[in-house]
Specification:
The chain is α+β, with helices and mostly antiparallel strands and about 200 residues long. It has helices at about 5-20, 30-35, 50-60, 80-90, 120-140, 150-160, and strands at about 70-75, 100-105, 140-145, 145, 170-175. The structure holds flavin mononucleotide (FMN).
Length: about 200
């Protein structure tokens, strides 16, 4: 009998279905936390504005010292800017393939700039970044935190590309898109890193 479907044909038909299924939003918090992984390869599909807002709302729901919310978010869809950053940031080459990126930056004029408390901007922006990454995972998107602060040359490159004033410091650049591959999360559980104080 003539074979109707070869394995290659089956994969061809199944791939869009698998991709569509992986784009379905997940809501269980533990599933999302444990499924999150750095995604560095994307399709060329653009990310809808509603999903961008959902990620930013999640980011801004993060806790901050004295509730100062010392952050700004730069949503980059401009191809030239994405390519410029890909060229200048040593570990963010994937920006040249990503349809967009978000830069999380700290505003060092929030609070008292002469008090050591001002250093909390990086912690606050990190909490926002993790929320954003979890939201991306929940929305079926792929994203990765690429480091900018505290590397002086990277901070200068991003500040220059976005024309940031000196009191706005970029913490990271997060390329975001629909995952090209089926990336898997790492299991990092290590009981030896837990010390109970009883
Ligand atoms: C502060 C920070 C800086 C990072 N910088 C980069 C980077 O420049 N480029 C990159 O590809 N990944 C970067 N990562 C992602 C890590 O490589 C990644 O989180 C780690 O390998 C664990 O993998 P996972 O995110 O899939 O769990 C960074 C992550 C953090 C938290």
């Amino acid at each position: 009998m003539k074979k109707l479907l070869t394995p290659g044909m089956l994969l061809f038909f199944m791939l869009p279905i698998i991709q569509l299924m992986s784009q379905q939003p997940q809501t269980d918090v533990f599933t999302v936390i444990h499924e999150r992984k750095s995604v560095r390869q994307y399709t060329d599909q653009s990310v809808p504005a509603e999903k961008v807002e959902t990620m930013l709302r999640a980011a801004m729901a993060a806790p901050t010292a004295r509730n100062l919310q010392p952050w700004q978010f730069f949503v980059i869809t401009n191809r030239q800017v994405l390519d410029q950053l890909a060229g200048e940031l040593p570990y963010a080459k994937m920006l040249s393939q990503a349809p967009m990126a978000i830069v999380v930056a700290g505003d060092t004029q929030k609070g008292n700039p002469n008090d050591e408390q001002v250093l909390n901007w990086a912690l606050d922006c990190s909490a926002a970044t993790q929320n954003l990454l979890l939201a991306a995972e929940a929305l079926g998107l792929g994203a990765v935190w690429t480091g900018v602060y505290p590397y002086k040359a990277r901070v200068a490159a991003v500040s220059n590309a976005l024309k940031l004033p000196p009191h706005i410091i970029p913490l990271n650049v997060i390329p975001i898109g629909y995952p090209l591959m089926d990336d898997q999360p790492k299991d990092k559980w290590d009981a030896e890193k837990v010390k109970w104080v009883e």
